[in-house]
Amino acid sequence: MTDDLAELKELRDYAEKVLARLREQPPATQAHVRVARQEAERLAAELAERTEERMTFAFVGDSNAGKSRLMSALLRMPELLKVSGAPATGNVTAVRVLPDPRGDVPELAGSWISFLSLNAVAECAGFIMSRLHAVVAECRLPYPIGMLRGYNPVVDGWDRLEEFARPLWRDAQANAEVRALAYELLRLRDAVARGGRLLPATDPGQHLAVDAALLHQAIEIGGSRTIPDAFPERHFVAPLPADAELTAQSLREVFPLVRRVTYEVRMPERLWDLSAVGDPRGVELCDHPGLNTLGGARDEYLSQRELRRVTSIAVVINARQSETVGPARLRGLLEGGRWSREELAHSLLVVANHFDAITPPVPGPAVTLTALRGLSEELASLLRAAGELSGGRADTTTLTSAVFGRDREVRERARGWEPVTASLRAHAAGDAHAPEHRLAAALAGYTADGGIESLRRRITVHLREHGVRILLGECRAVQRDLRDRLERLQRLESGGPAADGDDQRVAHAARALSQAALAMRERISRLSGLSALTLPDGRAVLDHVRRAVIGDVYLWNCWTETMRRSVRGTIEPRAVQHRSVFPGPAPARTDDGAADTTESLREPYMRALAEAHHEAFDLLSAALDRWMDDCEQAVAAARELLDDPRTGGLLEERLALLDPADGGERRMLLLRYLTRPRDWVPEVLRTSIHSAGGADLTVDEHLFPLADHHALPWHAAMGRHTEARERTVARRHQSRLFQLRRDLANGMAYTVQSRVARVVADLHGRLTEAMQELERELPTPGDLGRTRRPRPGPDLPGQGYDDLL
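The structure corresponding to this sequence follows.
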């Protein structure tokens, strides 16, 4: 452990030495040298920042798991963090714990809040928007979500969001989750209007010291998520100045812009000896917002953002409701981040809080873990959930009750676990590796003080064994990249020869890029016939569109209501009442929704046409997602070469020499576009949709295919004149209604299919032009081979980098 901390210090010193050396160099006159220096300086700054990070232990889980109360119990400061019966924490709350060798009681030493940057606020809005799109698509809700495709309200303004959201407040049956997500975005709108000047453009955000008494205003949710009855219109508010002194009211107004709240606490070593962690700077405990609250998409974004820099994690589950989807979803998120699945199995700590709610079973003299599960379904459910989170190591779960210390009844009930503990130990017979022994140790810790001291020890061990190792491994990786950059920079500045194997590496990359361009061109060409756009069932997207449109038209209620008047195959006018052959009063007719005029069909047709457009473009987006997945796989080999630090760096150097005017930046950007279709194709699609008339059709009246204000054959006014009566009766046959329905469905399908086809044709044309531009800039192996020996220039270093390599 001491060696690891010493190595972190050496890495920090190394980063500072590199930064100092780079700043000593004379100004670079060649663009490719400037670019190489900037990249080396960026990596050195990142390494210095990483080595300064404190080890962080995050508490994550569902909103009712009791994370805040548990952290307060660990710190012996019950009033520090806000706790409530309802979800109470809406931000990441960090407690920086500093070891205090001479103190007697924990002491609050300071507090501050950290804001998001403006870029991060836009990223947060994009995250909420993606959730909104997903909910509408998964539930097939009839909302015009297409108008929000490719739109970010922080960047593009709030008018379009307000246009989409306002009808949600007029519709009493509007989907609750859609309305909650829209309200989150509208709260973000108001917060940006009030506190936008507090936000820098890019990370890191501003830090402001705030009195601890006001901090609850920043983290307490209270009623802020209660959706108002009326649509929250935009009101003019005076923006807070950048140097504003925040009050309780202004802090609540800018709440959605707060990234995290930090307390600094001095912890006496006699209460919690953090010296075993080995870092004299102390540690950070982070309370993350709950994962399963309605209107909590922003909280989930904050959790995902902050988890990027966490070194150890405790997933807190509610022992009373242990088998929920929140913790399992969290584990999936973590596996996609800085932890591998194997690493999570050993470094993730599972804490079962509210264990006082579990009733102790009555065991035999030497019970096995399997038998104990059979005696208590509550305990069996808890161990199943813990096992899924810990990779099958449920017996290593820490059992806690944050109210143990101040609730006498809880302490009395805890004694019921003592026979269970003794029985498990009897079966384990001293085998420290037996699952019965480990569970017995967890139960003993719970009966002693609610598991709090046991949790403190496990946190200390986790940080010592896993936190430093993860941090050190990431710092070593940054140092390797930095040394590689310095080596290339030295060659560029001195005009030395390329390293052995560099020419072959660059030529291989050039060939891979040419193959990627060929694969993309082939896939783009398939768009011209729409053959490449299919859905998971293999059917073409236009077939799906036609089937969906016809199916919707055939379900209109007016057809059923009109057919109610059919007598022996002929549809009678509304005024004619057919006499029943049975005695008694004639049955009441309810045909108010029948189609008697063309105007009665106009409103359902235009409404269905608008809905069909939205559904068609949702299907088109799904098909294009599949097409882009195929493109991404086709260019994966070239993308991996560009992402490889050595190969990518060599390409940057060679392109800088090919294009000294801009240091090769434009060509490198285009190559990255080639290998990342998802980074630019969606924007081209948005342009094509707009060019073709938009996915959100403001339906033109001329699209209605029937004549205006005409009576249909079965209207009561038709056939009044004797000479026209026989002809009119013939036209009232129900087959005419079926033909009308079929014609309307076919007309609508044609309109929608034509719009989709125009969008795809426009998309095909734009992508073809883009690929032509990319291919013009694509370097050949011959182009890159001519740059294998960098040209000497005036950018000679004042001092080389040999001692840093």
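Residues 576-582, 584-591, 695-699, 789-798 have pLDDT under 50 and may be disordered.
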